[in-house]
Amino acid sequence: MSSHEVHAGDTLKVEADVTNAGGVAGDEVVEVYLTPPHSAVSPRLALAGFERVHAGPGETQHVSFTVDPRGLSQVDEGGARAVRAGKYRISIGGSQPSGDTSAGVITQEFTIEGTQELPR
After folding, report:
1. What range does the domain containing 12 cover?
2. For the chain, does the N or the C end have fewer beta carbons within 10 angstroms?
3. What is the rounded distance in angstroms from the CA atom of residue 6 to the CA atom of residue 112?
């Protein structure tokens, strides 16, 4: 992750290495999920990006995602979209984060400072 503190309006870069530990070539869909601070209208998880990667046996592929301000934003009860201050979690792996560390999903916390309104 590019930073553990992000200013509203900045982008967040997330990177990971994906290794094929098997003996046969295969594909993996790497997914990035954002968990925003809880509010009456916030989603539990928001898909922030995904990419299919191919890796041969024992091969490692590097993946990189950039989450822009719109991807970090939320819509409030009045319909206004904004990047809002608070503690967030970003997860990257082959599935949704479940809290099970054996599932190969890595989760890190970060903080957004300030607020930036975005156009609808």
Report:
1. 5-118
2. C
3. 5
pLDDT of residue 102: 58
Query: How many domains does one find in the chain?
Result: 1
Q: Which string of DSSP letters, residue by residue, matches 49-65?
A: EEEEEEE-TT-EEEEEE
d(CA 87, CA 102): 24
Question: Are 53 and 63 contacting, i.e. CB atoms less than 8 angstroms apart?
Answer: yes
Select from 89, 90, 48 the least CA-distant residue to 69. Answer: 48
Structure tokens at 89: 């979690």
82: domain CATH number is 2.60.40.10
The whole-model pTM stands at: 0.90
What span, in angstroms and rounded, lies between the C-alpha atoms of 10 and 78? 24
Across the chain, mean pLDDT equals: 92
